[in-house]
Amino acid sequence: MSWMSELSQLYDWESDIIGEEIDGVTLLPIYHSTQKAQIDVFLFSDSTFAYARKVEEDDSITIIPVTSDSATRSNGIAAHPLCDKLIYVAGDYGSYVKGAKKNAAEFFEQYISQLSDWVNSEQTDLLIQTVYEYLRKGTLIEDLIHCGVLTKADNGFLDENIKIAATKQSDCFVRFTVIDKETADEQKVWKCRRLYDKFIAYTESVSAQRDLCYVTGEMLPVTYKHSSKIRNAGDKAKLLSSNDKDNYTYRGRFSTPAEAYAVSSIVSQKAHLALRWLIERQGTTVDTAKYVVWESHLQPILDAANPFGDNGFFDDFEDDALLPKTNIEYGKAVAKYIKGYRQKLDFSSKILLICVDAATPGRLSMVQYQEFSATDYYDNLEKWYKGVSWLARWSRNGKHCCGIITPSPYQIARFACGTERSDSGKVVADNNQLKILFRQIYSCILQGTAVPENILGSLYNRCAYPLKYSEKYGNWERLLEITCAVFRKHYIEKNGVTINVGLDRNCTDRSYLYGRLTAVADKMESDTFEGDARQTNAKRYMSAMLNAPFKTWAYLEERVLPYTAKIIKQTPQFYARYEKELGEIHSLFKMEDFASNERLDAKFFMGFYCQKQDFYKKATKETEE
Predict the structure, then answer these.
(1) pLDDT value of position 134
(2) CA angle, residues 193, 198, 201, in degrees to nearest 5
């Protein structure tokens, strides 16, 4: 279980920030978890009630000590050691909650008995003594009603129509603050580092069962109840579990869970809390799956999922003219940017990746775990981002930007399996398909392997049907950019052919040339449109052009003739330009290539894009002049 060892070591490495909230994320102490509290009870240090107040939503996350049972509780009675729901901490719960469970008193009895054990141990503290002495009086709900935090109905019970932060009054979670009666200093029990340490020491002092820890190889107190809440605070799925005694979690090979595995409590706690912290701090979410990449000593690194942001790493450039406009410029910028991160790492640095996802609500699967040397990691990252690059257009602060970028793995996956919604114009994908494709692309980046054929095929097939995308949303144009970017890497690795964004007027590849022809036909027709956004014949017959280019081009020429007449009449200089362009393209064809109906490859899209871009550049230049 090297992943547990790595995470446990990371936890120790970051021990100085335990319990501190940094950028909204907290590395929890071991044997602790978090809950959302609705009520904050203030007690004087002599164990008398001071006042209480409702907790604001943005301050509700509360660090609480937990036991192995309470951390994983679902049904039954399993009290948290200090802060908990009213049914556990209020001795008068049954008197004020209509329809309370028949065994409601047992919840309080277990809680107060458990707290008493801690209070009477060597790891006791004035704070827990204060809470214990007050709660054993059994007047909490009565005091909360008197101070106006809880409200009774006419029947004398709590009014369940009234909620606190969307929670029924009887289900509220309570935390405590102790006020020193002499100095008036307040100590929040959920933020007290001293109390964290004392509970950890207390828990380890009462741990009895020892066995061989499979992670450390030492005889230590072990646990078979491991943490949940790994992906988020409401996550019930567990990575490690052996509580299924009836089916085949371990039966068939082992008689008991201990024969299958044993992990010490402290290693399990450290590993799970470190993983949760990493995911919350720097994880990437794809539906229910969580990806996290980190350096073994937590040095800053680039995340392969999206290291440069959605629009490349050029958001700091205020002037659009400074953005890379060629693949060569972009490749140099990528290398320079990555070099800055390489230099921060030691030659022995290790990069680790974990991906977790839930197959069922209660079981979390580690679908991917890999370790890389820093050199291999950045070599593969640079290879991907230099190879998968193409010109794109986007908006930033209301301004239109244009530059070479690499589409993120998420964007590639979404466009490879998604469809455009007619109502919103968004490209939406099936979550399961999206997760599968994202994982494939992510692995391809990290391992430096070829782009999977199914992704190439999906991009090709979708790009072949512009009619499935509305002109007003621009999604087909974005799909075209992504397709060209991905296939660029494919052709570099497969054929040793580098196709760049600029129009290659010397390229004699038939697919590229047919793409150029189609772009000219598309431009000739669209030039005659008067403000209406409709599809040209070139786009309508694009799929046919890919499958039978010679036959379809003859048909397309006929369909474009009426628009040619318009151009001759309205802008004869443009007609001359288009005729010259068509003549140059035809001259590059070999007769057998032009007359063949053999299917075209994805270089068709690259030729189409480059020719369109060349028209755009000329039009922009003429406008400026």
Answers:
(1) 97
(2) 130
The Cα–Cα gap between 242 and 168 comes to 34
Kindly state the tokens that stand for 300. Answer: 């800053």
- C-alpha 268/C-alpha 83 separation (Å) is 23
| Total-model pTM | 0.86
Q: What letter represents residue 581's amino acid? A: E
Q: Two tokens at 280?
A: 């919350």
Residue whose C-alpha is closest to residue 585's, from 520, 540, 537, 523: 520
pLDDT at 311 over 60: no
Length of the chain measured in residues: 625
Q: Provide the token pair at 417.
A: 């399996």
For the chain, give me the number of helices (H) and strands (E)?
22, 23
* Start-end of H helices in 231-326: 257-260, 265-282
Output the DSSP codes for 36-103: E-SEEEEEETTS-EEEEEEPPGGG-EEEEE--TTGGG-SSS----SSSEEHHHH-TTHHHHSTT--TT
pLDDT value at 243 more than 80: no
> pLDDT of 460-489, one tens digit each?
999 999 999 998 889 999 999 999 999 999
Secondary structure of residue 14 in the 3-state scheme: coil
> Any idea what DSSP says for residue 376?
H
Beta strands in 197-244 (DSSP E): 210-212, 219-223
User: Tokens 């455009």 identify what position?
Assistant: 420
Q: How far apart are CA 158 and CA 90, in angstroms?
A: 13
Identify which of 438, 445, 450, 437 has the alpha carbon closest to the alpha carbon of residue 489. Answer: 450
Digit-coded pLDDT (tens) for 266-278 = 998 999 999 999 9
Phi-psi group of 546: left, alpha or beta (phi > 0 → left; psi -120 to 50 → alpha; rest → beta): alpha
Q: What are the CA-CA distances from residue 299 to residues 295, 352, 443 (Å)? A: 6, 12, 22
Decide if pLDDT at 322 tops 70: no
What is the rounded average pLDDT for all residues in the chain? 89
Nearest Cα to Cα of residue 223 among 271, 258, 255: 258
AA identity, residue 548? A
- The alpha carbon torsion through 603, 439, 470, 504 (nearest 10 deg) reads -20
Could you give the CA distance from residue 66 to residue 117 in angstroms, rounded to a whole number?
14
3-state SS track over 511-565: HHHHHHHHHHHHHHHHCCCCCCCCCCHHHHCHHHHHHCHHHHHHHHHHHHHHHHH
Of 299, 298, 385, 293, the closest CA to residue 338 belongs to 385
DSSP class of 15: G
Residue with tokens 């990449």: 293
Which helix (H) or strand (E) segment holds residue 330: the answer is: helix 327-342
Separation of alpha carbons 134 and 420, rounded Å: 61
